[in-house]
Amino acid sequence: MTNTIADVEKADVILVTGSNTTENHPVLSAFVKRAVEFKNARLIVVDPRRIKLAGFAHQWLRPNLGTDVAWINGMMHVIIKEDIYDRTFVGTRTEGFEELKKVVEKFTPEYTEEITGIPAQQIIDAARMYAGAKAGSILYCMGITQHTTGTDNVKSLANLAMVCGNLGIEGGGVNPLRGQNNVQGACDLGGLPNVFSGYQPVNSIDAIKKMEEAWGVSGLSDKVGLKVTEMLPKAYNGEFKALYIIGENPLVSDPDLNHAEKCISNLDFLVVQDIFMTETAKIADVVLPSACFAEKEGTFSNTERRVQRVRKAVEPPGQAWDDWKITCEIATRMGYPMSYENPSAIFEEIATVTPSYAGLTYDRIEDEGLHWPCPTADHPGTPILHTAQFPRGRGQFHAIDFIPPAEKADDEYPMYLTTGRVIYHYHTGTMTRKTDGLNERSSGNFVEITPDDAQKHDLKDGDMVNVASRRGDITAAVKFSDKAVEGTVFIPFHFAESAANKLTNAALDPISGIPEFKVCAVRLSKAA
Questions:
Q1: Predicted local confidence at residue 180, as pLDDT
Q2: Is-above-0.85 flag for pTM?
Q3: Which residues form the domain of 278?
């Protein structure tokens, strides 16, 4: 997030898109609702489903799946045409505006309506509301990123924020809501194939020299590694031989699961390190039991870039070890001795090689976390990014045209499927589905559908329905819901026994490598 969670309450207008915030981020959603109910903030929700937050919205825009670039361009068309953009910010802090202006010129409200299904007047009203704010905050989640055009979607939201001068100010910002705990921290500390910690490129000569000196080694590779979505296809064709999975359950969470299963089964060697025997761990050659969050010391970096202490509450059971101890033991046995006294010593090393963490210590974050970048020991942290300038100097507008989703509905597969979560379960259910109280609230999978669409398929609420895509099929219970919209069904992906990801499309965003979880074509039939 460019801004903080608390800062959301300082916004005049909040634009939420691709985020079922009340179910996926219930604590953060309370800040949005308080801003609307008690601080007179205006709320725009853009979502294909009538999510609960839409009930608090002053405007709910319902786009066709996979048309985010179009409605964002449509809003910018109105803002630029009506001359309600921030001329000072655009002129002094950005570049590439004329190219952007040319691309969005064709996205009239009427043209945008043809693509998105959002009525033209709603596009106009939303554009005026967002542009009219002294401070406008954009919140988004995986409904924006999990598309073949996910990178374009994110850049387009950044365009919209810059056009209106909503970066570097209180109550503004472009604020991604992370989908899993400590995803931000994992990325910060090098859990990506192309960077060292602090997003220092692995093919940078300066970064390589710095790391070699810090670690007392030579000859570090400058080769960019593989994304997870590149590994499995290479396992399928035999190029990729072994896989070490930590805290992930791809046999429920990956797209096109039938194919993913074939890829993983083709590996010569599979190691899984986790806290429970997941669906993936069950087929592993080696399972390494690890400690959970309450059983270890360390830090988490949350969605607002706040680095926070995590403290051990209970002892880990059985043979479970801290993840860092497992890593050190394996590295030592492979010929590179790794030995740390404790997590604090590891964090000290992190600070020496990671510029954005350089000013952080356990003492400084003992009682309250700090936001990176925090480059020096006397730096207070950076709650709001880009207050004076962007890392590259001027902010770069990206002129982006609309590209449709990889798969469209047709006569054979006439309905659309989108996937997501329910409030009672988390990711693949590894933890939450072992909790009786949560299972009582949400005991099994369902297919959310409108009564009208159900009637067309001779389905009643509670019936079992077969849902098929070009990649597989599952059976689950029909659920009538006022969240549903005509032509689209929603299925949560938590339930391994009827895994939604047997249906989803593995087509990838060419830049980020993220699959298109949020759009695919399906057909429905009453289960026998």
A1: 84
A2: yes
A3: 226-289
